[in-house]
Amino acid sequence: MASNRTFTFHNGVNIPDIGFGTWQIPNEEAYKAVTTALESCYTHIDTALAYQNEENVGKAIQDSPISREKIFITSKLPAQIKGYDATVEAFDETISNLGVDYLDLYLIHAPWPWDDIGRDCTEGNIESWKAMEELYKEGKIRAIGVSNFAEKDIQALIDACEIVPMANQIPFYIGRDQNSLLQFCKQHNIVVEAYSPLATGQILDHSKIKEMATSYGVTPAQLCIRYCLERDTLPLPKSTNKERIIENSQLDFTISSEDVQKLATFEDVRAK
């Protein structure tokens, strides 16, 4: 799926192979962070209505000298919103917040509300997906997908709807490979996006990761992000630090297959 620094969805739309994540970046800091990312060669920006930073993410994109068509924008339907009409309303709010005419990718943020994880919201997800299919057909979204969906959640959409999700954004990092889900998505030609590729920073002090990073002449963060690419997933690192934003995009090296296999055997990488 990864080719020429892009992944390709099953509808032919290309997405840059690394995105700048904005989760946990407050609205007042989002403008500077996204501006820095755009100046540092990122052209793929990931946000969500639930992040409460879409307005300044959008302003940074509007103020950038890079044309809108060259910036790939992802946002997400809040996890607690289920149903056709509510989905359309939330999408319209996101478009207004960002100040754009269309999204490149729109995701259902989770199959259940965050305060009720595991609840069966199958019918609501199906209705939301049907609304997203319609927005897609109208040209308001270039690609549609899901986030935090397990195999059964995706299968429910496939069985009841017209369009197979084009992406599934999940937590994916060394020690949390989710191999069964990864294989399921591959079988259905669903691009897997890896959020929290650094496990929110918890894996950067792991002694074996630091040792391997040194052997490649890169930082632990670069090794962890590159690992996601080696596993055919699309990483979404985030930072508000300019040096780290730049560093996280400098991935012009490869990890040997032997070392990828070693990293894939790690279980609890958050333990030193």
From TrEMBL:
Active site positions: 51
Residue runs in coiled coils: none
Key words, A-Z: NADP, Oxidoreductase
Claim: Plastid is one of the keywords in the record: no
Record Gene3D superfamilies: NADP-dependent oxidoreductase domain
SUPFAM superfamilies linked to this entry: NAD(P)-linked oxidoreductase (SSF51430)
Oxidoreductase listed as a keyword: yes
GO molecular function, one term: oxidoreductase activity, acting on the CH-OH group of donors, NAD or NADP as acceptor
Residue(s) at site: Lowers pKa of active site Tyr: 76
Positions bound to substrate: 109
Protein's recorded name: 2,5-diketo-D-gluconic acid reductase
Organism whose genome encodes this protein: Planococcus versutus
Biological classification of the source: Bacteria, Bacillati, Bacillota, Bacilli, Bacillales
